[in-house]
Amino acid sequence: MTWTAPALTRTTAGDLQLALGTADERTMLAGWLQWHRETLLIKCAGLGQEQLARTAAEPSGLSLLGLVRHMAEIERWWFRRSFAGEPLGDVFTGPNDGDEGLEGADPARAAHDFAAYRAEVAAADAAVVGRTLDETFTTARGGRVCSLRWVYLAMIQEYARHNGHADLLRERTDGETGDHIGG
């Protein structure tokens, strides 16, 4: 049986700019991050596992499933491994998993990979409960000192960049565009 990425309804009620335009900083950062997380899933909604793993913008090997896998890795890296200091390995490991989950997307594992992504998002959110935006950590790569605020901003830009890729991949897969897909 072929698995299909489920439809998603946005959790941010109303117009995002109105809802978050005057919110406090933490609410604003968390809200924009949630918006981008949902955007990635919306770009995947309604596609079957083969479509999700398809590299639709040749010669690039990038796929929507690869982006979901990659963002699971990035969620874990910044929120849990770096900020919270949890001693964790990678989400996706093995000889075919490639660059932070981008490669090695197996259509037969699409449901598993989406579940892993959702679990990482939930764990990332849990890792920052009760923590302030001003709390800092030293990165394992480069020994730079960063704050939780920086992590939120880095994650928003990471999603924004990859959601642009997802737009193109989705359009090349079935012609759909916009944020209404599957919802």
Structural description of this entry:
By secondary structure, the protein is mostly helical. It has a single domain (24-174), classed as dinb family like domain (Four Helix Bundle (Hemerythrin (Met), subunit A)), CATH 1.20.120. The protein is built from six helices and two strands, in the order αααααββα. The protein has helices at residues 16-20, 25-44, 49-53, 64-83, 110-127, 148-174, and strands at residues 136-138, 145-147. A two-stranded antiparallel sheet has the order 1-2. A hairpin with a 6-residue loop joins strand 1 (136-138) and strand 2. Helix 2 runs parallel beside helix 6 (148-174), helix 4 packs parallel to helix 5 (110-127) and helix 4 packs antiparallel against helix 6.
Features:
mainly alpha, Four Helix Bundle (Hemerythrin (Met), subunit A), 183 residues, 52% helix, 6 helices
How is this structure best summarized?
With 183 residues, this protein is mainly alpha-helical.
Q: Helix amount, in percent?
A: 40-55%
- How many helix segments? 6
Query: What portion of the residues fall into strands of 2 or more residues?
Result: under 5%
Strand neighbour order, sheet with most strands:
1-2
Structural class: mainly alpha
For the termini, the CA-CA separation is 23 Å
Principal-axes geometry comes out as globular
> What's the gyration radius in Å?
16 Å
Q: What is the CATH-assigned architecture?
A: Up-down Bundle
Order of helices and strands: HHHHHEEH
Low-confidence stretches: none
Domain module tally: 1
